[in-house]
Amino acid sequence: GCIMYVKGATLTSGGNTTTAIGGSPTASSPGTEQFGIQVRATGGAGASVAPYSTNSSYADAFNATTQDDIAQSTGPSGTTTYTIYYLANIDPTTEAGSYATTLTYTVVGSF
């Protein structure tokens, strides 16, 4: 089996940041500042975990110093395909800029 983790900051542009959705599954809301991910697993024994596993919702319970588990498998998952969807919305007061982030994904075996 394995556990997949993600770690990284929300979107930033210079000193400006977008609002991370947080640890509860939240639907996209255009016009509201949001950043988060959704994880889907297909095939094999792997599965995404809450709060990232809710269809049509996104979450961001990680940050630049704290990783969060987003998927796992209790058995062999060589045939599992993990797809990660990203959400970025702005509101009328979001500062103009070129926003980016670096997310680090780590997979650790559990035997």
Total helical elements: 0
- Helix/strand order: EEEEEEEEEE
Determine the mean pLDDT: 94
CA-CA gap between termini: 6 Å
**How helical, in percent, are the residues?**
under 10%
- Name the strands of the widest sheet in spatial order: 6-8-1-10
Largest sheet: 4 strands, antiparallel
Radius of gyration: 15 Å
Give unreliable regions as ranges.
none
Describe this structure in words.
With 111 residues, the protein is mainly beta. It has no helices and 10 strands. A 4-stranded antiparallel beta sheet has the order 6-8-1-10, with no helix packed on it. A two-stranded antiparallel sheet has the order 2-3. β2 (12-13) and β3 (16-17) form a beta hairpin. The model has no long low-confidence stretch (mean pLDDT 94).
